[in-house]
Amino acid sequence: MKYSIIPEIIGEPLLKLDGEISFSKKEKREAWENSIALNQIDGEYKPSDLLLELIDKEINGEIEIDTIVNLLVQKYTVKNSSEEK
C-alpha cells in the first residue's frame, strides 16, 4: 500500500491511501459507527443531519470520503470577508 499527502485541511496534512481497496457496505457502516462512537467518549455527541446524510451516500458509493471532507470544511469554515463585517 502506498500513501500520499493530500492538501492540508485545518492546518495538518492528511494521508491518503493510493490504490483501489473496496469495502462492503457492512464494513463501511461499521467503520462510520465506530468513528462516531469514538467521538462520544468525551461526552454526548450527535452528528449533524448533513454528516449523517453524507455518510449514507458514502456507504452507498454515491460519493467519496474526500467529498465529505470538502463539503464539511466549506460548510463550517468562516468566510473572512462577508461574515466578519
Textual characterization of the structure:
The chain is of the alpha+beta class. It has one domain (22-83). It is built from 4 helices and 2 strands; from the N terminus they run ββαααα. The chain has helices spanning 25-39, 49-59, 65-76, 80-83; strands at residues 2-9, 12-18. The protein has a two-stranded antiparallel ribbon with strand order 1-2. β1 (2-9) and β2 (12-18) form a beta hairpin. α1 runs antiparallel to α2. It is globular, with a radius of gyration of 15 Å. The termini are far apart. The model has no long low-confidence stretch (mean pLDDT 78).
- Percent helix, as a range, is 40-55%
| DSSP strand count | 2
Mean pLDDT: 78
Quickly count the helices. Answer: 4
Alpha-carbon distance between the termini?
47 Å
User: How much is the radius of gyration in Å?
Assistant: 15 Å
Poorly predicted sequence stretches spanning 5 or more consecutive residues:
none
Instruction: Indicate the structural class.
Output: alpha+beta
Shape estimate: globular
Q: How are the strands ordered across the major sheet? A: 1-2
**Helix and strand element order:** EEHHHH
Question: How many structurally independent domains?
Answer: 1
Described by strand count, sense and barrel closure, the largest sheet is: 2 strands, antiparallel
| Proportion of residues in β-strands | 15-25%
